Amino acid sequence: MSVESRLPERDVLDGQRTHWDATFSQKPEMFGVEPSEPALKAAELFKRAGKTNLLELGGGQGRDTLFFAREGFHVTVLDYSQAAIEAITAKVDAAGVADRIIALLHDVREPLPFDNNVFDCCYSHMLFCMAFTALELDSLSQEVRRVLKPGGLNVYTVRRKNDPHYGTGIHRGEDMYEVGGFIVHFFSREKVERLARGFRVLSIDEFEEGGLPRRLFSVTLRKERQ
Hints:
226 residues, Rossmann fold, 3-stranded antiparallel beta sheet, 7 helices, globular, disordered N terminus
């Protein structure tokens, strides 16, 4: 089998959960405490659109979660790392936003634990470019669409295929490469457009983050119908 056609190895992808748990436990503020630039922009967009009930996927240690809550959003945040959920929970009371954050342990490869048409908006920073297969990504996108209200907004960021890390490290199938122990799924614009099934694409913007720098897409979608 060629490298290009290599299928993902389930046990390797599943092992990322343990890796993230250990990393979050060892590095309490791995991504810092200030909100990310995508979160700042998403908050502005959601406010202009009158969206207040927010679902965040892959909250990590909570830097964006706490920011959204301080900005007045009601945030339900999911992460599959126990260490991440514990970190967020520990920060909530000190930040004075306990009434605006619900933190839940959940693997988003499984159906989202919510009814249809619950949330005004969804936000995720680099969650979609974790160790998910193309089929899992399509399922997740449709789950996000299901739990959003009609007219709901979905904002997510993913690393692009012209990122410096693309094609380096260990190939883990499809467009996934493991670098420094972390598996990243890299995206083309075409992949973003395919995942937008059932949404209206409002924007696909390119930006850079960090010292490498990481090259990313910021994607804004709107649920158009039931």
